[in-house]
Amino acid sequence: MSLAAIVDLEAHPIGDAGFARACQETLDRDGVLVLADFLTAEALAAIHAEAVAGRKDAYFCAQNHSVYLTPFDSAYAEDHPANRQVVSSKGCICDDQVGAESPLRLLYDAPVFRGFVKAVTGQAGLYPYADPLSSINIHYAERGQELGWHFDNSSFAITLLIQKPAAGGRFEYLKDLRDAGAGEMNFEGVGALLDGAVEPAVLTMEPGTLVLFRGRNSVHRVSSNESDVTRMLAVLAYNAEPGVALSESARQTFYGRLG
Q1: Which residues does the UniProt record annotate as the domain Fe2OG dioxygenase (predicted)?
Q2: Beta-carbon contacts of residue 141 (< 8 Å; ≥ 6 apart)
Q3: How many C-beta atoms surround the C-beta of residue 104 within 10 A?
């Protein structure tokens, strides 16, 4: 399958420097870039079939965690925003379960796509994970499953929506709620969000949409799936340096295995 069979290059000419520059400006301004109908209908159908077939092999888990994804800090009370717990629950299939001819694999490895992501994010280089599990994932959220509020450790994330639930499963966020580089955690703002005193923005998307999101300083979550239609999402993960692997403890927690 060629790149033109995977990406609607007429609507999204990712090899064009001017298009990439406009996308970079959007990402820099808004903290998020949404490219609707990025996938062709053919590619989306193939990825959907792959995700449905892989569901039986998905590892499902749930974790309690803080918004900051940090361990309990005894310097603060249990109900302090640094320590308050939210829940994330999902199923996942990993990179080694994604076929060599999958449109996801072909897109991930395509030099034109990688060059586009580098141009948009400003990264000097992009490399796959050194471990066999983390580069390409497909996530499943069934009724009652959600991703709790959190900040990412990475500077950006790339996702492709495969299937949208009939209700719930909303991507909600608040841009630049903290400044991790300056060490400003904004506990007051996070507390207000957790208390429901702040109304987050909602990112609307349909299957086939590509999203680049800067989540290191922008808090975000996926609300609970309120339907019997599984939310399915592909995550394409790169590193700025070669040879980086997700830690063994993280792999065991999120994937239920090391390789």
Answers
A1: 131-242
A2: 89, 90, 91, 147, 165, 169, 222, 225, 230, 231, 233
A3: 26
Whether residue 117 contacts residue 160, with contact meaning beta carbons closer than 8 Å, is answered with no
The per-residue pLDDT for 80 is: 98
Tokens of 70: 């940090």
Residue 11 lies in a domain: no
Number of domains in the chain: 1
CA triple 143-155-141, angle to 5 deg: 10
- Rounded distance, CA 176 to CA 71, Å? 22
CATH number of the domain to which 143 belongs: 2.60.120.620
Among the residues of the chain, which ranges form H helices?
Answer: 3-6, 17-30, 41-54, 103-109, 111-121, 187-194, 248-255
Range of the domain at 228: 32-97+126-255
Q: List, in order, residues 6 or more apart from 221 with CB less than 8 Å away.
A: 86, 146, 147, 148, 149, 150, 171, 172, 173, 200
How many Cβ atoms sit within 10 Å of the Cβ of residue 15? 16
- Which residues of the chain register pLDDT less than 50? none
Whether 7 contacts 179, CB under 8 Å: no
